[in-house]
Design goal:
The chain has 574 residues and is of the alpha/beta class. The chain is built from 19 helices and 19 strands.
């Protein structure tokens, strides 16, 4: 599939601000342009961006219902009521439960946590959990990363004398559950200054408010920031504003003094002794926490995150590492089966969406499979399987297509649904499957233009190789933590050439290891192009080519070198 390259536009005003920042702060003009592109246009904003400050966190009481939530929690603790901390089985939910439970545990001997079973109960609040609460004399349930749509279940709990405090970050409907408090910055009546918190982030704000109301120093909350960082990275929320502050300090704790549980995961990931980044959480730490809920029960992940000694943490980490290996095998098997179904669709090239169903697929990995299909075919994908009496599924989208809105457009055919712009979950009865598939495909056909079905690489800046110096790479590090809405900068260099040493590498010689120069005195620089060995003959014939890449540091045997991570190669225009 050919990629489209799109160079981010900039105005004369952008260039003026770039030059002013470069002169005032002594930074390279390229870095200053990257900052301007991200809406950072004054020296004061640059300093705050480079050095986030915990004092800039918003007042948690600006969130709707926060006073009610704190009042009810204080009452429950004062009366020694039994409290249940309830969260989803993914990384965001399990980190959120761990955070709130860990912080409240010293103030209550009657607090417990509950993670629903993905297969027996499904996503969100379950009737089974409410019955459990009734049987165990629990009078307050605090939900985290779920609950915003649990209207019927909250009503069911209220009839049985159980109150709810809901902490969620998903899109609410017009009607909210009849909980004591509903904490969600996406509420239509919310005046909270930042709406992109993770579910764990909302839990953190609740604990921040609780601490303020009880004169508990903020320093008592700081050891929870590692959990917010893991949730922010894993749930793919924007790393801007308040999330940037939480992620910055959470990463600092992960690197300097992680809790036993996260240290155990760091060890099994092979990250011990290395600087942990958002990318490490996304690709190594997060998947292992997730694997517990996918393959067995998310409760094990919480028990790991709450480990009280290193031996316990190491043992539990080994267990979820095995779950992750099992998950990989299953995910590959189901992806292969899904690809086989798609290859049988004769007019797939003309279709703008994908819906695949197999009642035997493992529910725990269909979200990953949906992501892989979207990445391969660059179409919104819905992957469905059978769970109990219902068909359940996960959906992933492409840039510019709001999959939550599309699924909401099928709500009369669904039993439940929820999610975000680019990822959603749903369940439906089998007799509605054909109607759902037809309507979803129709909505995709109406909304998606052909250009959207070709992956686009957004290039931040075109630069010469001579500008890629150790000093420039150190400047780029100041942009960390990187992630959604502050992505790793993508650069392009034009008319570069092989230095004469490029070669194919890899088990099947599928990768291209490059050493490149340009005609302006730049290079030689090392680059690696994974899966791009088809360009080898063209490159080695000394033809000029354009290179699209990100910049990394590569450390080997104590030596650090600059390496370009190639995203795409194309022949230079004459």
């Amino acid at each position: 599939m050919t990629n489209r390259w799109s160079i981010r536009p900039h105005t004369e005003e952008d260039l003026r601000i770039r030059d002013e920042l470069a002169a005032e702060l002594g930074l390279s003009s390229t870095l200053c342009l990257l900052l301007v592109q991200r809406g950072i246009t004054s020296a004061r904003e640059v300093r705050k961006f480079f050095k986030p400050n915990l004092n800039d966190l918003h007042d948690p009481f600006l969130m709707p219902d926060m006073f009610k939530a704190v009042k009810r929690l204080n009452k429950a603790l004062g009366n020694k009521e039994k409290i249940l901390i309830y969260g989803d089985y993914d990384v965001d939910g399990t980190t959120a439960v761990s955070l709130v439970y860990k912080f409240l545990r010293p103030y209550s001997s009657t607090i417990d946590f509950y993670i629903p079973d993905r297969y027996d109960e499904g996503y969100g609040v379950s009737y089974k959990s409410i019955d459990y609460a009734v049987e165990n004399g629990i009078s307050l349930i605090i939900t985290l990363d779920c609950g915003i749509k649990a209207i019927d279940k909250v009503a069911y709990a209220n009839e049985r004398g159980i109150d709810f405090i809901i902490c969620d970050h998903h899109m609410p409907d017009d009607e909210l559950p009849a909980a004591v408090a509903v904490l969600d910055a996406k509420r239509t009546d919310s005046q909270y200054p930042y709406e992109h918190l993770s579910g764990c982030g909302v839990g953190f704000k609740f604990m921040q408010a609780f601490a303020q109301s009880n004169d508990i120093p903020f320093t008592h909350l700081e050891n929870l920031l590692e959990l917010t960082a893991v949730s922010i990275a894993s749930d793919i929320v924007p790393i801007t504003g308040e999330n940037r502050i939480l992620a910055y300090y959470g990463l600092r704790q992960l690197n300097n003094n992680p809790s036993f549980g996260l240290r155990g995961i760091i060890n099994v990931c092979g990250l011990a002794g290395k600087e942990i980044t958002i990318s490490d959480i996304v690709f190594k730490i997060g998947p292992r926490i997730n694997a517990s809920g996918r393959m067995m029960n998310g409760r094990e992940a919480v028990e790991l995150l709450l480990s009280k000694d290193m031996n316990e943490a190491n043992e539990r980490s080994e267990s979820i590492d095995q779950y992750n290996d099992d998950r990989r095998e299953l995910d590959k098997k189901i992806t292969d089966e899904a690809n086989a179904i798609i290859e049988e669709i004769q007019d797939i090239e003309t279709q703008k969406g994908i819906v695949v169903y197999n009642p035997d697929w493992h529910k725990g990995v269909i979200g990953i499979v949906a992501s892989r299909l979207t990445e391969k075919y660059y179409r919104p994908s819905v992957v469905l399987t059978k769970s109990s009496e219902l068909i359940t599924g996960s959906a992933r989208s492409i840039v510019g297509f709001d999959i939550y809105k599309a699924i909401e457009g099928c709500r009369d055919l669904l039993e439940s649904f929820g999610g975000h712009t680019y990822a959603a979950g749903l369940s439906l009865r089998e007799e509605n499957l054909e109607a759902f598939t037809n309507r979803f495909m129709k909505l995709a056909a109406e909304d998606i233009v052909p250009e959207q079905m070709t992956p686009q690489i957004d290039i931040d800046a075109v630069i010469d190789l001579k500008h890629i110096t150790p000093r420039f790479v150190n400047e780029l590090k100041k942009m960390n933590p990187l992630g959604p809405d502050n992505e790793k900068p993508v650069f392009c260099s034009l008319r570069v050439q092989d230095y004469g040493t490029s070669r194919c590498v890899g088990k099947e010689l599928e990768h291209l290891k490059l050493e490149i120069i340009d005609g302006k005195g730049g290079g030689p620089l090392h680059a690696i192009a994974f899966g791009m060995s088809t360009h080898a003959n063209y490159v080695k014939a000394m033809n000029p080519f354009d290179l699209c890449y990100t910049i990394e540091e590569n450390t080997y045997n104590g030596n650090t070198t600059i390496q370009l991570m190639v995203k795409d190669i194309r022949p230079s225009e004459s």
